[in-house]
């Protein structure tokens, strides 16, 4: 039997500091996380 896991939407948010410089932020480091979480998605920058 499989265990059922429940996640809240707020638990699945990639938290990024508002102090991040968008010119230096490397989204590629998070591609695996975002792909597993969202599949196909639109990135809004």
Residue share in β-strands: under 5%
CA radius of gyration is 14 Å
Oligomer: single chain
What is the H-and-E element order? H
Largest sheet composition: none
Point out poorly predicted stretches: none
Helix percent reads 10-25%
Note the total helix count.
Answer: 1
Overall geometry: elongated
Distance between the termini: 42 Å
Overall SS class? mainly alpha
Mean pLDDT: 79
What count of domains describes the coordinates?
1
Query: How many distinct beta strands?
Result: 0
Summed up:
This protein has 45 residues and is mainly α. The chain has one domain.
Keywords:
1 helix; 45 residues; elongated; mainly alpha
Task: Tell me what the structure shows.
- The chain is mostly helical and 45 residues long.
- 18% of the residues lie in helices and 0% in strands.
- It starts with 30 loop residues before the first helix and ends in a 7-residue tail after the last helix.
- The model has no long low-confidence stretch (mean pLDDT 79).
Secondary structure blueprint with pairings:
Blueprint: H1 31-38
